[in-house]
Amino acid sequence: MEFLLPLSIMAFLKIFLTYRLLFMAYTHLKNKDLKLSQFRLYEGDFPDKLWSARYQFQNMFEVPILFYLLCILHIIFDNYSQIDVFFAWGFVFFRVLHFFIRLQNQRGLNIRTRTFTFILSLIFLSVGWVNLILNSFLSKNI
To answer: Which of 62, 98, 132, 140 is the Cys-Cys partner for 117 at CB 3.0 to 4.6 Å?
Structure first.
């Protein structure tokens, strides 16, 4: 159950981003800044903030998928220690920071901070995967 809260935080971030993107799209459609047909293939000019929101939304379907899988495997095999929980929380911590950085309009943002938080989250995730594999082979649970 130690993985339930980190998984839930990531899920709520994704749900929030979904509603945010829908709200922003609706607002631009209502203000007649965009046409509904533009969303079919994302053709034409879109406001920077909408592009930024869309990229942030897409980003949550990339690396975090590996986090979900890692946590689910830990739960299924029941082969984890507190260090694995620490790696999960480390990933979530840096993804939350990354989330707040990406909420800003990306055009004028210094990309170093965003990249740094992404790399740190990736390190926590990578070490978590290495630890899962090593523990699985050492305990022969898989």
So the answer is: 98
User: Which tens digits make up the pLDDT trace of 32-71?
Assistant: 888 888 887 777 788 888 888 898 999 999 999 999 999 9
If we measure between CA atoms, which residue out of 12, 21, 6 comes closest to residue 121? 6
Out of 1.10.357.10, 1.10.443.10, 2.60.200.30, 1.20.120.550, the CATH code matching 4-139 is 1.20.120.550
Count of beta carbons in the 10 Å neighbourhood of residue 124? 21
| pTM of the predicted structure, to 2 decimals | 0.88
Q: What is the pLDDT of residue 52?
A: 86
- The answer to whether 53 and 17 are in contact (CB under 8 A) is yes
